[in-house]
Amino acid sequence: MKNFYKVGLMLTVSALLAGCGNLTNSSLSSHSNGTKTSKVTTTGTSKSGQYSTLLQGGEYHTSAITGLNSESDSDNASNPKSFEAGLLEISKKEFSPDKYFFQEGKMISASQAQKWLGRKSKNNPEGLNPEDNGSTDADKRNPIYLQQLLEQDFYTQNDKNYDLSGMTIGLSMNDVDYYTKEKYGAKFETKISDEQRLSEGREMANEIVNRLRRRSNLKNITITVGLYKQNVNDSLVGGTFFNYGVSSPGQKKVTNWKNISQQNQVLPVVNDEKPINSNDSEDFSNFKNHIQSYFSNLSGVTAQTHYQDGKLKGMAINITTQFYGVAQIDSFTQFVQDAAGKYLPQQPTIEIKIQTVQDPEAILVKDYNTKQYSSHVFASY
Amino acid sequence: MKNFYKVGLMLTVSALLAGCGNLTNSSLSSHSNGTKTSKVTTTGTSKSGQYSTLLQGGEYHTSAITGLNSESDSDNASNPKSFEAGLLEISKKEFSPDKYFFQEGKMISASQAQKWLGRKSKNNPEGLNPEDNGSTDADKRNPIYLQQLLEQDFYTQNDKNYDLSGMTIGLSMNDVDYYTKEKYGAKFETKISDEQRLSEGREMANEIVNRLRRRSNLKNITITVGLYKQNVNDSLVGGTFFNYGVSSPGQKKVTNWKNISQQNQVLPVVNDEKPINSNDSEDFSNFKNHIQSYFSNLSGVTAQTHYQDGKLKGMAINITTQFYGVAQIDSFTQFVQDAAGKYLPQQPTIEIKIQTVQDPEAILVKDYNTKQYSSHVFASY
């Protein structure tokens, strides 16, 4: 494992830009550490602000630790995506896509991550979650704080090689630890406070950085750590990051901790939930009412909203229809576009997906801080 | 029913253009035929070349005859969409979207269409399909030629009213008539030749026009008729139009019949099927092989292709993945965009849908005769 930080040998750097269409294939020798390494290629970027990805041996590398969980019974389907997407955003703050190439983490192995996600015990001295104190009382037991780990690696190009120069570690921390008192028994909950989550998260981050620094290839790279708060199981939206810090090359702990203010919410709000921003919530209600009064057979109109520093940054709207006539979908898409321009807030990134239970039928998108939507109705021949 | 051709009374003409965002609500009186009519609004168009739709009483009107079938046991899921979409294209040749407003047909009632789709018999003198001659032999029986009907209505704006000024009728004709010899029995097939389909289709079209002209409100409008050949049940692509004609105002039959040359095909071709165009087929294979060699876990890469006059006009590509990590989908989308620019033909409209079994993950599209793809990766918060 320890020579993976320097990949090279038989490089194929592919400047694959759409429309440009020329693929250069150059076979080059390299100066890696005497190990057999495989052909490295990169994907081009389709948008500025996105990473080029390193492909190894021609294939996309997936991290072995993605999806590993602690013993806590978390099952919110939105958490994994928002955890990964949010961590990429944090990475971009430290590792500019203009300079760094991305690859999913390969330094932390699955067996290692599994130990770290476990409780500390005689058999598992590396466990980052606290020892089992024997109690099954929600308020007296030691909860599982750390639920998932994620690693993202960042490489810089050095002549014919790509060198590992940065790493981002994500710690997904529980808001609620779901546990059972006996196997297959009823589910109980230990609520974790924001203060506990922050202090436990920072402590674990330091311990992880400290462990990683023991490896010679990780001593002198920048390691960024993001702390993520998982959303509870019954939410239809994922969690958010609340803190991140940086450990500069050589440092054995994380310094420069910074707060991140993010919130997610599903609209329309249900029960007695308070909207994060009542204007946004009303805008969405007006949009929803408008299209529902003109087109019957809409089974659902909901939005996931994403706030940063109190500002609405993104909306992902889902419209489920029970019709799929071509002319009707065309007409409905136009109508939705008109309604979106009229009722929805202008600043955030907005994505509107129109779908039947079987298939997506149409999509409308607009970028952050622009007004103009582009739409596409899916073809079928 | 007979006053439906003139709609008006309490008009709300809404110039709903995205970004423009002003909705004018004007209540106007009207000079309709003394009947109570409901408020008419229109949707704006999001693209040039698309119809504005008339909404009635605020709602989109769906035709009552859409989806009605003859007794033949046709079940290709792609036929209905390609039938409707193709008929809209024919309509655009006669009724320019710049001048005409679209509404799904409301002149032919469901009970009427059901009679027309039936076999001619003592109880059903209006049946357009031939009498049952008693034979169950595939070559001796009279097959069901006409499978479905579709009506599209076109209105022009006349001061404060919208007048019905054009109509397009689609006749979906069988390629194969699927029948059983006894209820719930085995399925047998009568193959219908191109010549039979053409002559039967034209004759039925004349009969339909003749019947419609008996109504005072349909005497003096242009009626266009399109003849569609249904695709067989085991195809993964819909059928195509092969003929269309026009009946000018007052004419009791269709004249000016014109051939339409269209073909659909799924790529990669299977078994011993011959590709419509071997260059296109090879281009697609190269694209498919390229992305499959770089990304494992792709369960399927297929394309629906649509040809007009021997030229590839459109491709709808479907890529099914087994992964849904955010970074991986991002990276894959970039990679697909590069590969599409490099391997796929440049002229046709191309749509590439990347999805897991649960959800669409990303979409790439380019217009006809352009090179540049635009892509969108679906968000999740």
Rg of chain A from C-alpha positions? 24 Å
Oligomer: homodimer
At CATH level 2, the architecture of the largest domain in chain A is: Roll
Proportion in β-strands of chain A: 25-35%
- How many DSSP-defined strands of chain A? 18
Specify the CATH homologous superfamily of the largest domain in chain A.
Answer: sex pheromone staph- cam373 precursor domain
H-E string of chain A: EEEEHEHEEEEHEEEEHEEHEEE
CATH topology assignment of the largest domain in chain A:
sex pheromone staph- cam373 precursor fold
Protein name (chains A, B): CamS family sex pheromone protein
Pfam families (chains A, B): CamS
InterPro entries (chains A, B): CamS (IPR011426)
Keywords (chains A, B): Signal
Characterization of this structure:
The structure is a homodimer of 381-residue chains. Helices cover 20% and strands 31% of the residues of chain A. Chain A is an alpha+beta fold. In chain A, strands 1, 2, 3, 4, 5, 6, 7, 10, 11 and 12 form a ten-stranded mixed beta sheet that branches. Chain A has a six-stranded mixed beta sheet with strand order 13-14-15-16-17-18, covered by helices on one side. In chain A, α4 (278-294) packs antiparallel against α5. The interface between A and B is large, with 80 and 80 residues.
Topology:
Two copies of one chain form a homodimer.
Chain A: E1 6-7, E2 40-42, E3 52-56, E4 59-60, H1 79-94, E5 101-104, H2 110-117, E6 146-158, E7 161-173, E8 176-180, E9 187-191, H3 194-212, E10 222-229, E11 240-247, E12 255-259, E13 262-267, H4 278-294, E14 298-308, E15 311-321, H5 326-343, E16 349-355, E17 360-366, E18 374-377
Parallel strand pairs in A: 3-5, 7-10, 15-16
Antiparallel strand pairs in A: 1-7, 2-3, 3-4, 5-6, 6-7, 8-9, 10-11, 11-12, 13-14, 14-15, 16-17, 17-18
